Amino acid sequence: MYSALSPSQLQLLQHLMLAEVPRPDTDPVSVAVRDLEEASIADDVRTLSWMGLLEVRGERLAITPRGRAVHFEAECAVLSTRLAEVSLFADELQRRTPSLSAELHALRQLANGAWSVTQAMAHVERWSH
Description:
By secondary structure, the chain is mostly helical. It is built from six helices and three strands; from the N terminus they run αβααββααα.
């Protein structure tokens, strides 16, 4: 579901994960302080509320359990992409620097979730002697 959200909507959910936020129409300063997009905040609140991702509680906005799930789904996707990029970077470094083969193999296994840090370090130690 997160892929249907705009960057400004995801940013608002991120702020709501930390704490409730004053409604933008009652406290425009809070919008500016949080670096939220003033032009889209009202629409973002309406849309996220309609989707059941946030709720208006009097003068404040609060994230719903569904909003938390969508936030974590988006965060997981970003981190998965980053780890895949780390693995690709290790491939390229290994191609350029074959002498670091054991270290880069361990890094790639760690980034892919196949090994723990302890296993990766043990592999490097085994190959460094």
